[in-house]
Write a structure and sequence with these properties.
Blueprint lengths: L16 H20 L7 E3 L2 E2 H20 L10 H14 L5 H20 L6 E2 L5 E2 L1 H22 L8 H18 L8 H4 L4 E7 L4 E7 L2 E5 L8 E5 L1 H8 L5 H6 L3 E4 L6 H7 L4
Helix pairs in contact: 1-4, 1-5, 2-4, 2-5, 5-6, 6-8
Length: 281
């Protein structure tokens, strides 16, 4: 299937390093303060991970994002859901630190090093995990997404609020997640067993952001700036709700019932099938 593709298909233009840095300057201190306030790091957080393990994982993400910007060797990884699970578990096994106070200090220091690296970067793409090429702004927005999502995981584990500003979620999705999807092979985010023979195009209208068409065909997921063929469903999405739903933190039915996602079109019931067929890392 052919048609126009783009790494950042929004009418507002590409995400700048300055936008990403500003967001990280706001989000990282909140995350570090949250981690410092944790009294029981062994509380389950997400999946089989405790708060301490989530926090250690965040420090690993900051490390390899920083290393990508400065050209340091990166861990070997296949950037798929299963491949990233293997990498993350290996990094956790190799890192014995579970003291959240020490990990908070590590994240704070690493984030400072990352900021220095991204501030001095130019527009040339860098090599990220799996050998894929990403713009420095996309690497920064990936780190923003990691901080937002795992801040949500930690806060939820201890019954606290973790507000995510719309502008931060737009950056994380359009500046980080979308470029990563476009940089990877089109099968990377697809579960072939769940995708089956499903062929669908869904238009995403991100509130406060742009429009993107997600096209799934023959087990391959592509993002486009314009539709090629009929559109099965349209989705108006609060960017935070979209991120939480796409990354498996909440169900689509709940988000729709809250009005944070609104779907219409000739086959809106295919949306859950498309989400079920994707397997983001």
């Amino acid at each position: 299937m052919t048609g126009p593709t783009t790494n950042r298909p929004t009418p507002s233009g590409p995400t700048s390093v300055g936008q990403a840095r500003e967001a990280l300057h706001e989000v990282v201190p909140r995350l570090v303060d949250l981690i410092r306030s944790i009294h029981d790091p062994d509380v389950p957080a997400i999946g089989s991970w405790t708060i301490a393990e989530v926090t250690a994982h965040v420090s690993h993400a900051v490390t390899f994002d920083r290393d990508a910007l400065v050209g340091e060797p990166l861990p070997e990884a296949t950037v798929t859901g299963a491949g990233m699970t293997t990498l993350n578990e290996r990094l956790l096994r190799d890192d014995p630190v579970r003291d959240t106070r020490l990990l908070a200090e590590r994240i704070d220091a690493l984030a400072g090093e990352f900021d220095t690296a991204v501030a001095s970067s130019d527009d040339r793409p860098v090599t990220w995990l799996g050998g894929i090429s990403m713009a420095p702004s996309a690497v920064a927005c990936h780190l923003l997404e990691e901080c937002l999502m795992h801040g949500h995981d930690i806060a939820a584990a201890v019954g606290r609020r973790w507000p995510i500003e719309r502008r931060h979620a737009v950056l994380a999705v359009e500046g980080g997640v979308f470029p990563m999807i476009s940089a990877l092979p089109p099968t990377a985010f697809v579960d072939p067993n769940k995708a089956g023979a499903l062929r669908t195009t869904v238009e995403l209208r991100i509130r406060g952001g742009g429009r993107t068409f997600m096209c799934l065909e023959d087990g391959e997921l592509r993002l486009r700036s314009a539709a090629v063929g009929p559109v099965d469903a349209h989705l108006s999405a609060d960017p935070t709700a979209l991120m939480l739903t796409f990354l498996g933190r909440q169900g689509i039915v709940r988000a729709i019932s809250q009005g944070r996602l609104a779907a219409w079109g000739r086959r809106p019931w295919w949306l859950p099938r498309l989400l079920a067929a994707t397997n983001p890392p």
